[in-house]
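Hello again,

I reread your note about wanting to compare the complex against the isolated chains. To keep things tidy I'm splitting this into two emails, and this first one only covers the full assembly. Below are the input lines as submitted, including protein chains and any nucleic acid or small-molecule components. They are followed by the predicted structure of everything together. The single-chain runs will come separately.
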Amino acid sequence: MPLSPMKSVPTNSWNILAAIVDSSDDAIISKDLKGNITSWNLSAERLFGYRPDEIIGQSIMLLIPPELQHDETDILAKIRAGEKIDHFQTIRVKKNGERMEVSLTISPVRDERGVIVGAAKILRDVTKQRKLEAIVRTSERLASVGRLAATVAHEINNPLEAVTNYVYLAKQQPDLPPKIKQYLDSADTALARVAHIAQQTLGFYRETFQPGKFVVSEIIDDVMTIYERKLKYKRLNIDRRVDSGLTISGFEGEMKQMLSNLITNAVDACRDGGKIIIAARATQQLPSNRHGIWITVADNGAGISKQDKLNLFTPFFTTKKNLGTGLGLWITKELLEKRGGRIRFRSGDSSPSGTVISLYIPEALPDSAAAIG
Amino acid sequence: MGTGSETHRVLVIDDEADIADSLTDILILHGYDAVAFHDGLSAIESARSHCPNIVVSDVVMPKLNGVDTVAAIHEFCPEVRILLLSGQALTTDILEKARASGHEFEILPKPIHPYLLIKKISLLMANPT
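Full-complex prediction:
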């Protein structure tokens, strides 16, 4: 047993204490004031993967990630001063290099004369707990997305309805000068575009119609009209590789919304004069033999950093600062998964590496989707 | 314009006066006998004395919501055709409640282009209830 009994503790009591330490679910480790490990219980072995004979006598730094090693100096200083450190949240490294989030409590250990000779650490792996907390936070954010979208949609759609009506009424006036008529026509087209974008990007547009069968190239045409100006302004080259006659069943608004979210990201990622490939083809998934289509949008833009990839489908996560809602990819994934599809992406870490995002959309709709009315 | 019928009375209900008034003007332009209301209660009062052929109503309104308004009108004007417009999708609760009491209404998203609304109304009038 690595812990050395103190004089004041009878041997029998020491055995009991040692048994308690070893049966604890928390890792219990002690170290001297130089930071060398002096004891290591069974849970420490289970959590970190080191056997006592491998680790006792080694520096505690072995367990601390390089970027956090300066913390140890502060910890030892506090221990020397007789202070206790309670529930310190940090990261530690296992023998296999894997990192875990831990909660640490560190107390000074004194000898029989009361002199501080080292420290005892109680360490708990809180990785799972943190993950659960993250899930709760995400679901709270999802609920707030819903509330926000409802409010924003209402505030935008009502004035849009009024202005659309006024433009329509103005156009009905007899003997309009041709120039005014032309202005009103342009206003009408612009309003239709705003209405379309509001319904698409706010994402909570519920279809009031039954699902239908659509020609994929026509859906792409419709979506591309939204971006015409932007494409022209950035001089982007669009390469379309869409099988003619390819069709898909579903809700038109949802299909357009998914595609539009991918295209807007590609357009924003591209530099001036960049290139976007939009491809669609029929597919048959094995082993289920499910029919469906793959739609791919590829750009030669900035690419996605390693860190950003982790948050790609998190609501409100955006790399576009004030320009993005952070909802596009999240909504796309939600819509796809609702109908049994999936999304995949490929992007390099170094800029410019480009990004390829593909959506698999199954041909058959789940029963629940067909029932939305 | 004359695409509608002179005899078809339409109640247009929206708490946003701009929308109720402009839609009413559009419907009048298309030959309907349209009247604007800015709350559900006054529309119900009007319907009590003269049953409309169609009610076009917003859903989310203060005091009385659109679904409860049209449900009340439908009680004493069973032939009336209903068209609901909503600027937000989260009206499911209101619609579910109406469904539970036996009312099934169609809801169209705002903004709806007047051209489509007129088309929708003439289709409603062409089909028997």
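For quick reference: Chain A touches chain B through 26 residues (CB under 8 Å).

B.
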